[in-house]
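Ops channel
N.P.: pipeline sanity check, posting one input/output pair.
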C-alpha cells in the first residue's frame, strides 16, 4: 500500500505530467492539430480534382530515350514511362489518351513537378534518400529496377569497368549517374575524368565522336542509346559491372496523399494483373468467366477497390484493357523483341525470381 502510494506520488511529480497540465502543452496540441487539419483539407485530393477539371494528366517524360519516353515526328509518344502515365489516365479519366506529355531534361525534371507544371514525373528517375527527403516530392512505386553501367567501343581494350583508369567518361549533369561515377572512381582509385553535359544529345554526340572513351548512365539507358544512336550497335559493348542501384519510378508532389495513393496502386494493379494472368487480350473472358476471388476483386466484379481510391470499380480493368499489364508494357517497350532487347531480370515478378512484388490489392 505504501509502495503504491509512493508510486502515485512519483507519477504526480513527473515533469511530463506538469507539461501535460501546462498551458504550453495545450497551445502546442492546438497548433499541431490545426496544422494537421489545414494541411490535409488544403491539399488532399487537389491534384485529382484539378486533373478531372482539365480532363487530362500532365506527365513529365524524357526528352527522348527510346523504350522509356520518346516521340516520333507526328508527336506520338511511346515508352514504358509513357505507358505508366497512360495507364493512370485510363484509371482516372477513362481514356489512356488523356495525357499531355511534357519532355524534360535531367536538370529540369524536379522543378517542373515542384512548380505544378506537371502532375507526375515518369522519366527514368531514381529513388534515393536525398531525393525523398529534400525535394518535396514522393517516390511512388518502382517501375524498373536498374543499375548504372558503362559503354565502350567494342574495339577498345576495356573488358571491365575497373580498367577505366584515367579514362574520360561522358556523363549527364543533374543525375545520380554523375555522383556514382565519382564514388566508383574514388573507391577503385581510377581517377576517371568525367566530361559532364547538361543535355543528352550533347553527351551522346561527344561519346559517338570519340571525345570520351566511355559513356556511363543507367544500363537501360545505355541499351537505349546504343540501339538508337549508334551507327552499328555491335560496335559498342556494355561492360559487365553495374556500379549502383537505380530503382526507377514515377514521382508526385508531397502533400497530396490521395494522388500519391492512386499512382502507386495503378502500378501495383498492373503488376497484380500480370501475377493473376490477366492481360489486355483475355480480360473480358476473365471478367465474365473467372471464379477466382482475387481476379474478381481486381476487376471490380466483387469488392469495389476503386472507390477506396476515389475512382470507379473498373479503374484497373480499364488500364489493363487499354494499355496492358506490366509484362505487356515491359515487352512492348524494352523487352527481348525490341531493339533494347532487355531481359526481365530484376524486373520479373517476385514469384519468378525477380523483385517486382506488388502490394496486395485487397
Ligand atoms: N536514373 C538517373 C539518370 C536519369 C537520366 O536523366 N539519365 C539521362 C541519360 S540516359 C537522361 O535520361 N537524359 C535525358 C535528358 O536529359 O533529356 C537519375 O534519376 O538521375
Amino acid at each position: 500500500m505504501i509502495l503504491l502510494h509512493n508510486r502515485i506520488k512519483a507519477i504526480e511529480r513527473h515533469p511530463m505530467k506538469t507539461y501535460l497540465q501546462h498551458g504550453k502543452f495545450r497551445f502546442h496540441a492546438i497548433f499541431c492539430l490545426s496544422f494537421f487539419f489545414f494541411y490535409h483539407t488544403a491539399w488532399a485530393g487537389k491534384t485529382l480534382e484539378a486533373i478531372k477539371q482539365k480532363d487530362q494528366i500532365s506527365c513529365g517524360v524524357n526528352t527522348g530515350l527510346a523504350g522509356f519516353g520518346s516521340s516520333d515526328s507526328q508527336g506520338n509518344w511511346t515508352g514504358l514511362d509513357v505507358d505508366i502515365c497512360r495507364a493512370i489516365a485510363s484509371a482516372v479519366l477513362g481514356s489512356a489518351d488523356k495525357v499531355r506529355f511534357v519532355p524534360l531534361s535531367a536538370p529540369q525534371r524536379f522543378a517542373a513537378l515542384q512548380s505544378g507544371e506537371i502532375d507526375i514525373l515518369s522519366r527514368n528517375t531514381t529513388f534515393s534518400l536525398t531525393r525523398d527527403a529534400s525535394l518535396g516530392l514522393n517516390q511512388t512505386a518502382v517501375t524498373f529496377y536498374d543499375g548504372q553501367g558503362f559503354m565502350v567501343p567494342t574495339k577498345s581494350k576495356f573488358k571491365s569497368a575497373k580498367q577505366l583508369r584515367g579514362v574520360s567518361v561522358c556523363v549527364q549533369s543533374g543525375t545520380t549517374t554523375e555522383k556514382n561515377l565519382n564514388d566508383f572512381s574514388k573507391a577503385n582509385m581510377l581517377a576517371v575524368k568525367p566530361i559532364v553535359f547538361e543535355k543528352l544529345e550533347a553527351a551522346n554526340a561527344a561519346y559517338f565522336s570519340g571525345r570520351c572513351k566511355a559513356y556511363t548512365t543507367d544500363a537501360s539507358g545505355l541499351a537505349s542509346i546504343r540501339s538508337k544512336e549508334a551507327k552499328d550497335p555491335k560496335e559498342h559493348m556494355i561492360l559487365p559491372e553495374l556500379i549502383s542501384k537505380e530503382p526507377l519510378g514515377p514521382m508526385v508532389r508531397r502533400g497530396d496523399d490521395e494522388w500519391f495513393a492512386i499512382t502507386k496502386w495503378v502500378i501495383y494493379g498492373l503488376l497484380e494483373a500480370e501475377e493473376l494472368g490477366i492481360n489486355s487480350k483475355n480480360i473480358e473472358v476473365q471478367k465474365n468467366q473467372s471464379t477466382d476471388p482475387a481476379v474478381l476483386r481486381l476487376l471490380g466484379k466483387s469488392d469495389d477497390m476503386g472507390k477506396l481510391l476515389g475512382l470507379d470499380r473498373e479503374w484497373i480493368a480499364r488500364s489493363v484493357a487499354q494499355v496492358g499489364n506490366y509484362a505487356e508494357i515491359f515487352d512492348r517497350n524494352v523487352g527481348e523483341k525490341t531493339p533494347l532487347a532487355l531481359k526481365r531480370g530484376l524486373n520479373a515478378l517476385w514469384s519468378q525470381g525477380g523483385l517486382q512484388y506488388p502490394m496486395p490489392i485487397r
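N.P.: looks fine end to end. The pocket of glutathione is lined by residues 62-63, 65, 105-106, 124-126, 172, 175-177, 200, 217-218, 221, 246, 248 (CB under 6 Å).
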